User: What shape does this take?
Amino acid sequence: MGEDASDWAADSAAAPSLSDELPSSVYDPIGAISVSSRTFTEAQAGDGTIGDSIDLRLANGTFAGADGDSLAEAITADNVPAGLTLVAERTGDRRVRLSLEGSAEHSGALDGIDDLTVAISDDAFSRAPSTGTREFAFRVDFEDPTLNMDPTRLKAAADGAVDVSATLTLNGARFAGANGRDLVADGALALPGLPEGVAATAILDDAHRATLRLTGSLGDAQRAAFGLDFADAAFDGTAAASVRGDGISGLATVAIERDQRWREKLSALLAEAELVVRGAYSSASFSAFETARDGATETLANESTSDDDLRAALDRLTKTADALQITGTPYRVLEAEEFDDSSGGRLSPESGNIGGVQVGSWIAYDGIDFGGTLPKRVKLRYANHPGDSATDEHVEVRVGAVDGPVAARVELELTDGWDDYVTAEATVDDPEALDGSNRIYFVFGGTPDPSQPNSWVANLDRVQFLKTAEDGPETAEPVRIEAETYDADNGNGLKKEGGEPPAGNVGGTWDGGRLTYDGRDLGQDPLTQVTVSASTRDDRVGDNRRLEFYLDEVSETTRVGTVDLPKTGGWGSYVETTAELDEPVSGTHRLIVVMRADAVSGQEFNYVANLQWFEFGPQPQEAPEVDLTGLNVAIDDAEPLLAREDRYVSIDFAVFRAALDEAKRVAAADRTTQDEADEAQRVLDVAAGQLEWRAVRQVSVSATTRTLAGKQYVSVAVTNGADTPLDLEVETPYGSRSFTAVQPGASANVSINSRQATIPAGEVKVTVTGLVGDETVTADRTASYSAAG
Assistant: This one.
């Protein structure tokens, strides 16, 4: 670098600092005169004009003259850039606005200055301020010329044909040449990256604007990115290298691409999505779908929405439609905090439970459908606190409404505190009340205790309905011991490696190696087998690899089992091997694991294996035979629907198809449980059952009442939103009316006299009949009306 400092950019302004932006009073709090800023900044147009002003402020004293007067003779400036003039306008007794008018002759980024000096004479005041400087130094900052292109993403036709235009706007500089000049034809503008099949012109509209037009074809390409490479000849006195902006400096920031018809695609999917109803879909999946559907509607309503936003809305709607799921089995665990509705108030979801539960609180779950198998019991897990609890606490299972029929009542005993969760259960007294698809309420009851501050009922963790009148026999839980958690070893290279449990393992194993695990609880029930997870590098292990398991000490009488270890093909390839124990084990013991392997002649290493874990478990229960009859019947009934796909809403049909595929997979699987088969059948039946003819979903039905001559009439309006003529039969409790061949977009209206002065709330049914291909299809729609009279 040399001994002398560089003088590069010595004539330019110093870098801006915080003091250039803050009021001077921050740095000179006792001065009676302050300024609101230290920097004048070029206007956004980049044409050398200044886009802001600075206020002179007095803490005491008064400026001369009246508001609006010029104080330019008393407030003067030195070193003002050529083309600019200081203006000082009185805006208040203690305020003057300073601005720079005109346009700087030179306004490149290096033309900025930091020594514009403003001096204030006594003539500026009618009453002079007490203290403070009368001279201030300011910066004047200019930006490099910029070029904006609108739009930067140009749209070709879907077939690749190109005929598009964009406006190029130049700020802070001028285009050279007369209006009508073609910068491309003159060689002043090149477009690197533009496909050979696309021609370009750039015609000057004036000194600051040009119209870029592209014509031709993209050929086979879907998209082409290109840049704007200007020559100095494009600009009047400005070097092309100093201009910044869209597509400049060789950066391919602008593009032309085929019209992907995002608006058209989104419109088509939304039209289909609007036909989807909640039906049997889970609350979570339908809520996400509904949110995406509403968002798509808003996106399409804005005619200026960008392709990016249209595509994003399409992606969201597509993903949420694909994620629609049939509500889970009614026998699933219902997590309390995942309710569909609640009483609110102090009741609220917490981490893994609900809290704030008082007498009268409730939570509800939608779409609980037990089908033909009604529950016999309900079980819940809860905790409460004896120091702040209601008395006679219980949970009622109600159907359809908070005050609906009571299917079961679970009594809640006091627990030892909020962390002491226990299980309570009750028999379902009225299982028939649960028949069909219902909203199920869990209503918390009890008697508030006046001596308790809150009289909470309970924190609820989860609820589950059960098919059986009692639990089946319990099986012993397996006990897993991570190999690297040993308390002692006999050395010679044995080591813990691979990280903390359960990520780690034991390495460096050898014939005679020994691991000791003190005080390991093997449970109360007898465990009859042991499984070992181990890996080997096959060329570094001995023959006849095995582990011997002992309890309390190593002897022939205390050995409980031996596991032979296979070769696995690599240290990272763990294989699980199970062996029967010589005798069952239970209780708390010292477990001792002894490693065995025979040396291989001529082999350098004779490890046993890397050991990951050992697991003691009960004898596997023989799985009962699975009855697939119902599942196979459901599959046979569903398959003919595949040939009728075009009559149904495509989103609903995709869910049905997925359910059918899953049912077939479960039916063909080697290991299928009865619960898996039953659930696959239930989901398939529900998905098939909610398929509805598209034309019916496109029919809107409304019902109202009106009074005429003292009698109540039921008025029904039916609109055919389908694309095919429909026959309609309108049925009310007081009569019916038929309409034939109601055309697409047309409506059928009827008012039926009840001949009564008052009528209760009721429902009308509209039977819709039409042709799908050469097949006649019939389905029903309903609408409710209120009581009248």
Summary: The first helix runs from residue 262 to 273. The mean pLDDT is 91. The chain is about 10% helix and 40% strand.
